[in-house]
């Protein structure tokens, strides 16, 4: 018997899954040697490697076609993936197979991926990305638009305002006035409209780690 809230919770979980189930996520999952190791697969009876999952395989193919629009390169990377996922040729080496779960995925590709150069380059780019939970959290722009004090807007209106505000913010950074004048670098400190007087360089740097060009301006601007 199901509880009355089962379908509500199930719908939330499905929406969350679909939000993270993108072609790029599926490709990164497919290139992680961890999920092909026998020790991982044998932990649970119904586990299967990514290349045997229809949904993941479909999304992976979509992503590879976008990255390699040239038919020749696409076929070549497909063949390389077949060798990797099937433990064929150079990937059939005992060390390569046993290390799939023992060492970091990036290190594994550096050690054993030279025989598949296209796939190795792609795997190092994807698996080298830092983990982030930002897609599952309300970002600062949304909380600025829709908060306890501003909670009477419909979700669609709030999303539209976030879209407009974010794009205006990005466009403003292209303007010369962004680096000079009374309102220069207005968004470095987020939405806390405090003065930067008597603030150390490191404190300011922490607020702008994602903006190397901006940091250079801050450090050189007297």
From TrEMBL:
<feature type="domain" description="HAT C-terminal dimerisation">
    <location>
        <begin position="89"/>
        <end position="168"/>
    </location>
</feature>
<dbReference type="InterPro" id="IPR012337">
    <property type="entry name" value="RNaseH-like_sf"/>
</dbReference>
<protein>
    <submittedName>
        <fullName>Dimer_Tnp_hAT domain-containing protein</fullName>
    </submittedName>
</protein>
<dbReference type="GO" id="GO:0046983">
    <property type="term" value="F:protein dimerization activity"/>
</dbReference>
<dbReference type="Pfam" id="PF05699">
    <property type="entry name" value="Dimer_Tnp_hAT"/>
</dbReference>
<dbReference type="InterPro" id="IPR008906">
    <property type="entry name" value="HATC_C_dom"/>
</dbReference>
């Amino acid at each position: 018997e199901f509880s009355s809230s089962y379908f509500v919770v199930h719908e939330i979980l499905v929406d969350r899954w679909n939000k993270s189930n993108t072609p790029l996520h599926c490709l990164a999952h497919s290139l992680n040697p961890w999920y092909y190791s026998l020790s991982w697969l044998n932990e649970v009876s119904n586990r299967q490697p990514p290349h045997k999952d229809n949904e993941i395989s479909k999304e992976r193919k979509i992503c590879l076609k976008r990255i390699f629009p040239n038919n020749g390169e696409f076929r070549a990377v497909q063949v390389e993936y077949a060798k990797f996922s099937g433990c064929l040729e150079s990937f059939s080496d005992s060390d390569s197979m046993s290390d799939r779960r023992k060492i970091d995925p990036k290190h594994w590709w550096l050690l054993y991926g030279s025989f598949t150069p296209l796939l190795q380059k792609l795997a190092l780019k994807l698996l080298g990305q830092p983990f982030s939970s930002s897609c599952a959290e309300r970002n600062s722009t949304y909380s600025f638009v829709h908060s306890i004090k501003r909670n009477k807007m419909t979700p669609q209106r709030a999303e539209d305002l976030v879209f407009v505000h974010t794009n205006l913010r990005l466009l403003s950074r292209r303007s010369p006035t962004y680096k000079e004048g009374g309102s220069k670098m207005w968004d470095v400190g987020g939405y806390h409209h405090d003065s930067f007087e008597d603030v150390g360089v490191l404190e300011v740097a922490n607020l702008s780690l994602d903006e190397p060009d901006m940091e250079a301006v801050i450090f050189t601007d007297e």
